[in-house]
Amino acid sequence: MEIPKWKTKNLLGIESLSKFEIRKILTLAKKLKHEPAKNKSYLAGKSIVNLFMEPSTRTRIAFELAAKTLHADVISIAEKSSSLTKGETLRDTALNIQALGADAIVLRHSSPGSPLLLSRIIDVPIINAGDGAHEHPSQALLDVYTLEEKIGPLDGKKITILGDILFSRVARSNFWALSKMGAKVTLAGPSTLVPKSFESMGAIVSHDLKESLADADAVMLLRIQHERQSSSHFPSLEEYTRIFGLNKYRSKWLKKDAVILHPGPINRGVEIDSELADSGNSVILDQVTNGVAVRMAILCLCTLSYNK
Ligand code: CP
User: Fold this and answer.
1) Does a structural domain hold residue 109?
2) Of all helices (H) and strands (E), which one includes residue 188?
3) Spacing, Cα 301 to ligand 1 middle (Å)
4) Whole-model pTM?
5) Ligand 1 binding pocket, CB closer than 6 Å
6) Is 230 a residue whose pLDDT tops 70?
7) pLDDT category of residue 308 using cuts at 50, 70 and 90
């Protein structure tokens, strides 16, 4: 298979991508998912460095598996095992990784804009694996992929993202991706976590759970991102669950065959009941599986568009 041409070596976010570019990534992901393993040596001889400055299970492993499946060498570094703990800056760390011969850097960092910053300093492709509360582009792409696989084209579909929108990079990237693909996106949750100002982006904002779920084709649950909140935005987790938690009774407000998504990690019994997370409507593990194919497509496009 010929890997299509790609205009930019970096993947920093979804906001700057067109619908055409999103489709290009998803089409390649679908081909890679179904291509025999022996034909997937597109990145043989390349070295991918995963630089994860925040914890991760799904994203880091999926990028590792994607790189290995494409026959790249892959090295993963966590903050605690790097010289960042000795006072080295992120800039110097990235320059050293480049000097060591990396062909792409996958970066997760707590500071919004850190992938953009690195992309202006170093030459090798930078792939954003989540920057603070800003963007998580590979997550949104795998979510669109999974939704299209489960409910078909997204044009006109009602998709509700429910939970801690304010502090969520997943919500931002998904809002851009889903609305570019034609979906009607509702952002729902308590007013302290879903400010009305999101309407200026083109989202429907709702603080009424029943209204936000009514006739939705899909709902994406988000956990409360305690690690990014400096103060509490609601009285208690119990109260959050009582008013906004998704349970079997409330799921009946959705369309009958609506699918339930969650980027993980799930806080069972808080934003979602276990019964629903493990139900036939849940596509949570499909999201995880599709994350490998989508990240294969991202690594191919970004790495191969860059010539040292
Ligand atoms: N969805 C997601 O980013 O999960 P991890 O933090 O485990 O990578």
Assistant:
1) yes
2) strand 184-188
3) 22
4) 0.95
5) 56-59, 130, 139, 263-265
6) no
7) low
Q: What is the DSSP string of 213-232?
A: HTT-SEEEE----GGG-SS-
At 127, the amino acid letter reads I
State in Å: Cα 308 to ligand 1 middle.
31
Across all residues in the chain, what is the average pLDDT? 94
204, 181: one domain: yes
Torsion angle defined by CA atoms of residues 39, 297, 76 and 13, in that order, rounded to the nearest 10 degrees: 170
Q: Could you give the 3-state DSSP secondary structure of residue 13? A: coil
259-261/184-188 β-pairing: unpaired
Q: What is the CATH number of the domain that holds 111?
A: 3.40.50.1370
Report CA(40)–ligand 1 centroid distance (Å). Answer: 25
Mean pLDDT of the 227-250 span: 83
Q: What is the pLDDT of residues 96-116, one digit of tens each?
A: 999 999 999 999 999 999 999
Alpha-carbon distances of 299 from 8, 49, 59, 138, 304, rounded to whole Å: 12, 11, 13, 10, 8
